[in-house]
Amino acid sequence: MKRKRRGPKKVSTPRLRRATLTLWSRAVRAAAGGKCEVCGCADGSLNDKGNPRRLNAHHIEDKACQALRFDPMNGVALCPTCHKFGPDSAHRSPLWFMEWLRYNRPVRYMYVKENRTASPPSRERLVELAQTLRSILHE
Length: 139
Hints:
Number of strands: 2
Helix content: 40-55%
Structural class: mainly alpha
Oligomer: single chain
Strand order of the largest sheet: 1-2
């Protein structure tokens, strides 16, 4: 005999993490106002080849750091050139990027530096983070 489920179906933790990471990315890009935080180019503006640029949300402290993985303060909106492909990009020149961050976004730099060793969020905290990110995005 099947037991009837009461209440909404519980979302699996991996699916919750993926959904929260997507919300995190959208919140970081929205907080930047649709512009690259390094060079200032607008999301959708054309690059040298005539293709529209799409902003990326870059984790300051790597995603492996569970404590800050879903924290919008641990993110920077970057165009593809400033994120991965330029000579002074966050991935090709991480030392340059950290110096840029320390000089241009000192509050965010210090926040990440001080909170990188915090404990990872519990499942309940992850649900709260997702709700907070949705409220930031007005969903």
